Fold this sequence. Notes:
One of its GO terms (biological process) is protein folding. By secondary structure, this protein is of the alpha+beta class. The protein is 31% helix and 20% strand.
Amino acid sequence: MAIPDEEYDKLSKEERDARDKGDRAREIAEQAALPYSWTQELGEVDVTVPVPKGTRGKQLNVVIQKKKLVVGLKGEEPILSGELCKEIKVEDSTWTLHDQALVHLEKLNNQTWWENVLTHDPKIDTRKIEPANSKLSDLDGETRGMVEKMMFDNQQKQLGKPTSDEMKKMETLKKFQEAHPELDFSNAKIS
């Protein structure tokens, strides 16, 4: 069972490690006992539901609503059914059938991690989620430029060299000095 952050922070490193290991083992066991498996990214949740070999799409009953998900075989008890823990974008959510039913849910709030898929299922500790590294190529042009600049500046600082902003200031000052050789900058403090 998850403890409040303030209690967790008071634990020693060894106590935290032991607690994390126990919590992780419990989570793995609880998730493995579900009749489906799931993964998530910040903006989406993918649910994999095992179905009998040879099942056809028309034999499935799949209901995807803003706060509800049902997956099962027609005329039988659903494999999973219940209230979603958070709202989804119904129009952007889909399902497909390959050897198993694959349900793709687009999160309405794409900046939160889900603790579970259905509210009645066991929860995971979202504080321990380690998102997959995104690639620079996944970013839009402006964001990519900012990240590349930050990476360059960080590398320059570590090497004791000037950052891109400092280099720009030095270049501007150099041009100004060349345009005005009559001025003495020897005692100038540049900030």
